[in-house]
Amino acid sequence: MNKELDTGRRVLVIDDYSPTLDAFCNLLESWGYVVTYAATASDGVAAFAAWTPDMVVLQPGDDGLDVIRRVRAMSPEVFIIAVAASLRSRGATYDAGADCFVLRSGIDTLRRALVRGEAETSARAAARIRASESLSLLSGGHMTSRALVIDDCEDMRGALQRLLGTWGYHVEAAATGSTGLTAYFARSPHVVVTDLALPDIKGWDVIRQMRAAARDVLIVAYSGYEELLPLGLNAGADGSVLKPHVDRLREVLGTAGSGARRVVRPEDD
Fold first, then answer.
1. Using one digit for the tens of pLDDT, what is the confidence trace for 32-64?
2. Which one, 4, 105, 193, 199, has the greatest CB density within 10 A?
3. Of 113, 97, 20, whose CA–CA distance to 59 is shortest?
């Protein structure tokens, strides 16, 4: 069931507690948003796939974290806001791929998060279009740049593959550092995007081996742990991104390609 107005950004609200769900829908509609809702995780994922909203507002319980991962895998551009009663689940929420975490009592904070989401979604869509156009011009329609993604998380790996694919890259993916190195030496990619917390080899050791073999490849390290990012840069990465803002990868690739290094954190707005 949809509750729609004639104007406003599209927001999907997911909450299994009916009074809270109704309150969120009414509040968002009063702010001019076009709202649809779901009361279960499965209905929420189905609604997202069918309705393609600009933003998602949900509570980050166990089911909520799964929804965040699945939604992020479907769309790197959507802005996801988690609303919780306490800060206990904040870290897990960001690791799952949420863009913003607010407390249920912070109505003003929620409003600011939505305004930020409006700007972010517009910027992400514009960046995707610019990146696609730039790659098309650079390739002249004859060559596709190769990219390699290394991440043991299947959802994140898939999301990055889709994101780079929309920018015109031919993307190969690996779930471990060792398979990533094998793919790297076999395919000689132009761009490598690697997680730093891999299950078999430390991500910075992977970067060090790649950099020793080639100086012209662009390497971007990313992690949910900010303290790991300098290790990636010291090993030879050209730039780094702090989760969950992997959607800003294009910004880092552009900066790295100009010879400068860039670290993107969630507070970089």
1. 999 999 999 999 999 999 988 999 999 998 899
2. 193
3. 20
CA distance 219 to 237: 5
Domains of the chain by residue range: 2-123, 144-264
Say whether pLDDT at 96 is over 60: yes
Check whether 134 has a pLDDT greater than 70: no
CA separation for the pair 59, 102 (Å, rounded): 10
> In this structure, which topology does domain 144-264 adopt according to CATH?
Rossmann fold (3.40.50)
pLDDT(269) > 70 = no
Contact 75, 52 (CB under 8 A): yes
- 2-123, what's its fold? Rossmann fold (3.40.50)
CA dist 129 and 6 (Å) reads 26
